[in-house]
């Protein structure tokens, strides 16, 4: 047995030595081949006069040069005349790094369009927050719009027309003014005396983000008037400022970006929840995001279920909530939920194609759902206004500015 073990050990040693030798030989051959190919390609590039020295792309003494040589593109650090770090690699999926380096190249261009303006008008959408389980984190932009005009003036003034005009604060507590102040603070510039005018088409204090609309419109207006721009890639500075004022991002994020974003009625909510309820909401929120990403409307009915805020608010404030949800679903809605902190109940329907007024009513469910919800509300003595609208993929934007950004050579949308 001893002799057999010794022989086996000797054979294993020989195998290890052979394997190591083969690996070293293979590495040496690979390095020699790569150096030969690099040298050949380098001479070929020089002969064809490509206009740059390939030696800046690789170092033949390093095995890592193969990766740098074989990349499809390289982004240069503008203003320095050389690559951004001799060992740095920018892959196609490194979007933020690409944008960071492109921003460096465009710094001078930014200055051309960052002059202070005299007046500006910002159009901002309504938003529906929470969407069931996404408490303070998920919201979507809705195709209802308000317009805010801010201009330099000798006297401070706030005027308004439209929904809730008589209820809006007309002093500096107005969220528009708070947003403008935040913008001038970000620009590190003194805030001038300004005049504000609002055309409100967003139901005021009804769970459709009217306060968030004021915040976002004020910040954007202030930035334009101040001639200041904020970084977006990697920091989302505008969102950070708006969420800091509002206290949560679920309304301001879709108000800024449009679409669906994941980011006093509170008095009826408890400061803590059970682990079971927390797990339930995490699961439903995940299901909601997945259903929206896949466009699976059939799953929304269960995805908008929630145990964190809707049951509590229904019990204390909105007795009609769940009867209206049930009525909407029975009439053909894919789902229904309490919008924001209420009192609005939002139902999502399908079947619409193009302009709904050019489509046969029986192909759509919105009208039947609307009537069913109104009947359910009436059973609780509630009278309200029903609005048929759609999700907006567009967020807040400037629609008018003086002096304009458009010039003889460049024309922006709506000729602003």
Textual characterization of the structure:
The chain is an alpha+beta fold and 416 residues long. It is 41% helix and 14% strand. Helix 5 runs parallel beside helix 6 (210-226), helix 6 (210-226) crosses helix 7 and helix 12 runs antiparallel to helix 13 (366-378). It starts with a helix and ends in a 14-residue tail after the last strand.
Features:
single chain; six-stranded mixed beta sheet; alpha+beta; 13 helices; disordered N terminus; 416 residues; two-stranded antiparallel ribbon
SSE topology sketch:
Elements: H1 2-48, H2 65-70, E1 76-77, E2 82-83, H3 95-105, H4 107-112, E3 119-129, E4 138-152, E5 157-162, H5 175-187, E6 194-200, H6 210-226, H7 237-246, H8 252-257, E7 260-262, H9 275-294, H10 300-303, H11 310-316, H12 321-330, E8 335-338, E9 345-348, H13 366-378, E10 397-402
Parallel strand pairs: 5-6
Antiparallel strand pairs: 1-2, 3-4, 3-10, 4-6, 4-7, 8-9
Summarize the structure.
This protein is α+β, with helices and mostly antiparallel strands and 416 residues long. It is built from 13 helices and 10 strands.
Strand content: 5-15%
N-C termini distance:
93 Å
Rg, nearest Å:
31 Å
- Tally of DSSP helical segments: 13
- Stretches where pLDDT is under 50 for at least 5 consecutive residues are 1-10, 12-86
So what's the overall shape?
globular
- Order of H and E elements: HHEEHHEEEHEHHHEHHHHEEHE
Structural class of the secondary structure composition? alpha+beta
Overall pLDDT level: 80
């Amino acid at each position: 047995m001893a002799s057999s073990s010794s022989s086996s050990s000797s054979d294993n040693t020989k195998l290890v030595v052979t394997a190591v030798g083969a690996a070293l030989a293979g590495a040496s051959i690979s390095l020699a081949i790569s150096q030969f190919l690099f040298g050949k390609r380098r001479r070929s590039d020089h002969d064809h006069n490509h206009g740059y020295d390939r030696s800046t792309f690789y170092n033949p003494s390093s095995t890592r040069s193969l990766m740098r040589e074989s990349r499809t593109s390289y982004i240069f650090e503008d203003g320095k005349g050389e690559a951004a770090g001799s060992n740095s690699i920018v892959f196609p999926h490194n979007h933020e790094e690409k944008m960071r380096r492109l921003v460096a190249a465009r710094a001078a261009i930014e200055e051309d369009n960052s002059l202070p303006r005299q007046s500006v008008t910002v159009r901002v959408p309504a938003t529906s927050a929470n969407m069931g389980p996404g408490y303070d984190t998920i919201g979507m932009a809705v195709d209802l719009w308000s317009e805010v005009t801010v201009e330099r003036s000798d006297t401070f003034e706030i005027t308004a027309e439209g929904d809730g005009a008589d209820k809006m604060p007309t002093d500096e507590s107005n969220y528009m003014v708070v947003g403008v102040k935040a913008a001038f603070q970000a620009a590190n510039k003194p805030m001038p005396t300004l005049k504000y005018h609002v055309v409100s088409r967003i139901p005021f204090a009804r769970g459709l983000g009217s306060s968030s609309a004021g915040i976002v419109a004020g910040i954007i207006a202030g930035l334009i008037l101040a001639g200041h721009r904020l970084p977006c890639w990697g920091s989302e500075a505008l969102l950070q400022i708006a969420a800091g004022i509002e206290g949560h991002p679920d309304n301001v994020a879709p108000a800024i970006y449009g679409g669906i974003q994941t980011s006093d009625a509170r008095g009826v909510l408890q400061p803590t929840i059970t682990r079971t309820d927390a797990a339930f909401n995490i699961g439903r929120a995940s299901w909601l995001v997945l259903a929206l990403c896949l466009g699976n409307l059939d799953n929304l009915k269960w995805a908008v279920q929630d145990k964190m805020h809707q049951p509590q608010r229904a019990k204390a404030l909105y007795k009609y909530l769940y009867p209206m949800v049930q009525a909407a679903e029975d009439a053909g809605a894919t789902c229904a939920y309490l919008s924001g902190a209420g009192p609005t109940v939002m139902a999502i329907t399908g079947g619409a194609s193009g302009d709904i007024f050019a489509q046969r009513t029986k192909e759509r469910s919105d009208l039947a759902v609307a009537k069913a919800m109104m009947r359910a509300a009436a059973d609780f003595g509630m009278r309200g206004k029903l609005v048929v609208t759609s999700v907006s993929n567009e967020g807040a934007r400037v629609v008018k500015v003086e002096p304009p950004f458009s010039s003889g050579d460049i024309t922006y949308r709506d000729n602003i």
